[in-house]
Amino acid sequence: MKKYGVNWKLLSIIASVFPFLIIIFQFNIGLEDIFSVGIMPFILASLFIIIRLFIQGIKFNYVLVSFFGKIDNTWKIILIRIGSEFVTFTTPMFVGGEIVRIAWLKKRKVPTGKASWLIIIEIITEIMAAGIFAIISGLFALIQGSLFIGSLILFTSIPVMSIWIILFFFSSKRIFQIPNFISTIIIKFGKKKGEKYINKTNKWIKDICIISKYNLKTNKTKKTFVVAFILSFAAWSFYGVSFIFIADSINYKINVFDSILAVMASNTIGNVPITIGGSGLAELGLWAYLENYDTLDFRSSENKMLWNGIIIWRVSTYHVPISISWLLLVKLALSKYTNK
Questions:
Q1: Which pTM was predicted?
Q2: Percentage of the chain with pLDDT > 90?
Q3: DSSP secondary structure string, 129-180?
Q4: Which residues contact 81 (CB under 8 A, 6 or more apart)?
Q5: Are 326 and 23 within 8 A, CB to CB?
Q6: Distance (Å) of CA 263 to CA 126, 282, 316, 326, 337
Q7: Segment 292-336, tens digit of pLDDT
């Protein structure tokens, strides 16, 4: 397990650094250009992304305590939540961390269905908060004449947010199951194993729907959902503000509101499931939103300092937290396995 984890870590870091190399060679950016941004803006941007992770940890602990009471030390729960982000950072479309949290909850005797439902509340509030920011940024882009980038943001964010909202809120009204045509294909190729996994997955989905039916309309659930949404909104806000420190160091004029919209546009485009952790896409998304609203033609950008800032911002908000979350994941979530 340890060996597998190290290989995974190295592969993820290499894959995420590769887009930087393309940008550096494309614009002839040297180390002196990158270092010219300054150490304090880098530290401040890193601090704000760490605050975002910490708020996510607080939200996870709050939702957990609301439904199951205190099952472990508060600090440990927060750090487990931060550690699980390593998996999220190193997969396409930023998914996977929830599997770590569900596994951790199962070890604390929380049934899989209940643990999954709790995680879904976490996810839906996160997606709704991010989706609202993304829709606003997309609309602002359209208003300013950026048909391409604005449409891309809206077409990426609206369907994802809509599907999650529909599935979550309608799960209390009916029992969802895997569509028959998908089940048929899986059983045809997977035989008995395929049928086994289909049955287990359908049971898991059914358990979640039953839990939603009995809990979604209660005052406790409504209160928990609202507080979790507010915390998600705050977490994304800190993430959005992180760029303003970098922008100020390169004399790029931007206010807090525009910084949040630009970063959330970057996050939305980075969620397209093409690269690990949105590497390359997030950088392009931020640049396109700030500098060029009509096309992704590299030659149209003459602002070399902006690219310097984008590279430093990406390192501070991606590679710094990925290192911290890896250490916490190994220390807290995988320690038993690595010791064996």
A1: 0.82
A2: 20
A3: HHHHHHHHHHHHHHHTT-HHHHHHHHHHHHHHHHHHHHHHHHTTTS-----H
A4: 53, 56, 57, 59, 60, 61, 101
A5: no
A6: 15, 9, 13, 23, 37
A7: 655 545 444 555 677 778 888 888 888 888 888 888 887 765 554
